[in-house]
Amino acid sequence: MKNFEYNLYNPKHIKKLLSEHGFFVSKSLGQNFLINSSVGSKMAKMSGAEDGFVLEIGPGIGALTKELAKISKKVCSVEIDSRLIPILKKTLFGFKNVEIINEDILKTDIKTLIREKSDGMKAVVCANLPYYITSPIIMRLLELDLGVKAITVMVQKEAGRRICAEPGRRECGAISLAVRYYSTPRLLFDLPSSSFFPKPDVDSSVIRLEINQVAPVEIKNRDGFFRLVRAAFSQRRKILINPVASSFNISKDHLRNILLNLKIPLSARAEQLSLEQFANISNSIENFPHIRK
Ligand code: SAM
To answer: Count of alpha carbons within 13 Å of 40, Cβ hemisphere only?
Structure first.
């Protein structure tokens, strides 16, 4: 059977394709394939992939890959599951601008990959992420300073809300702060669990992180800043003095003085602070000599 005979949005066709290859979906690799025909093309367009280079993570059986290949100059898709490679060869037959790399994205040298494959074209990331590693992948993409314009990803609905939450809001978590430092997040749209095969337990959202060209706050020590954020959110409903003082091995009195100087209430909890306030606390801690590194 040739590629054009498969409709990748039709569960019956998918079942046939998978059974022809003796393939069983792996839940632990987050394999839920997109079967909502309008979403793939909409997401591809909104990702900014047009006429440029796209890094896709986890192509699965290739539904989103095809949409990206139709509008971009080149797609490079990193897929961990080697069993999917022969399937992708079939479903993407004829798309000369797609390259599949059989690797774990968490171990891939993504920066070199983009530099070598993009030929200087503008680059974006677009993916229906495996949900079990959403946060590590997003953090990696942001921290590596890849030079991409934007990262557009499908994530679990709740994770999407958290990632896009404004600092100072209840839904905010450590990842919301990190995301805001590196990018400007936007929730694009939600989609129901029936948009996937097999159907997952939860709904999804597509979010877009537009990479900041200029950092929104000045930070003296990036590692120290993220350590502060992680410590503060480790007990998000409690006042931040205890976990932060213990993480940096500084006295609570010392930390209280910092907060007083910055006019931050001593009763402040992580979810109440802005990005700027976190930056100010971090920069003040940096000024102290006896921090356990
Ligand atoms: N893009 C396809 C779609 O939209 O139908 C499939 C998305 S599915 C949610 C996630 C894909 O990521 C699966 O194909 C899975 O095998 C792959 N994957 C899981 N962990 C990965 C990793 N560490 N590196 C690369 N791919 C991974």
So the answer is: 23
Q: Which residue's C-alpha comes closest to atom 8 of ligand 1?
A: 31
| Same domain flag for 249 and 189 | no
Pairing relationship of beta strands 33-34 and 196-197 according to DSSP bridges = antiparallel
Residues 257 and 146 in one domain: no
Residue with CA closest to ligand 1 atom 17: 58
Other beta carbons within 10 angstroms of residue 138's beta carbon come to 25
> What is this structure's pTM?
0.94
- CA-proximal residue: ligand 1, atom 6 (nearest): 60
Structural domain total, the chain = 2
Domain boundary among 211, 241, 264: 211
Joined together, the tokens standing for residue 165 give 């939450």
Separation of CA 275 and ligand 1 centre (Å): 32
Ligand 1: list residues with CB < 6 Å: 29-34, 57-60, 63-64, 78-81, 84, 104-106, 128, 130, 133
Whats the size of the chain, residue-wise? 293
Q: Kindly state the percentage of the chain with pLDDT values over 90.
A: 92
Q: CB within 8 A of 5, min separation 6: which ones?
A: none
Same domain, 250 and 160: no
Q: Which atom of ligand 1 is nearest to the CA of 106?
A: 23
* 266 and 153 both lie in a single domain: no
Question: pLDDT, tens digit, for every residue of 216-244?
Answer: 999 999 999 999 999 999 988 889 999 99
Same domain, 71 and 156: yes
Which letter does DSSP use for residue 120 in this model? T
Q: In which domain, by residue range, is 234 found?
A: 222-286
* Residue 2 reports pLDDT greater than 90: no
Q: Do 195 and 60 have their domain in common?
A: yes
Residues 29 and 132 grouped into a single domain: yes
Ligand 1 atom closest to the CA of 8, numbered from 1: 5
- pLDDT for 88-114, tens place per residue? 999 999 999 999 999 999 999 999 999
Same domain, 270 and 135: no
pLDDT exceeds 80 at position 157? yes
216 touches 163 (CB < 8 A): no
pLDDT tens digits, residue range 111-137?
999 999 999 999 999 999 999 999 999
